[in-house]
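Late entry, written up from scratch paper. The run itself happened at the end of the previous shift, but nothing got recorded in the book at the time, so transcribing now.
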Amino acid sequence: MTTTYDGWRVAIGVVAGLNAVAALGGAVGLVTGTLSLEELTTRLPFGSALLAGIALGLLVAVPQGLLAIVAARRSADSAAASVVVGVAMVGWILLESAFLRVVSGLQVGYALVGLLQVALGLALAHRETSRWAVRADWWPWRSARATRPPSRA
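Output as recorded:
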């Protein structure tokens, strides 16, 4: 657990937390029908706002919420997670724009928020390592896997 540069982690956690709440609100609105896309619904896969809401919840709200938790726990993986989740957010917006064939100010704003998450992750990584690169520490997982006895199947 790293305690240096907690301000960067707080910024990552706040942005991710706000994104998670907003995405969850949008997902609930789409699933319940209180958020209407009107004629744009026909452009969605299977023409279903329900599926769009479920996808928004699973592909945006859950990763953003997990990032907020990782940042709040002051994990050393906060920088890498922020970059990955930020790139995923931008990808979601690009995919959404492609399906809806519409670009709105809200989409541009959320794409910029995704880029902000990438920038915050890179800045945190730079502060911790003096390099503009991120690397999650997956070594414990690999070493545990390598020492596991083979199965007798």
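The chain has five helices and no strands.
(Scratch paper discarded after transcription.)
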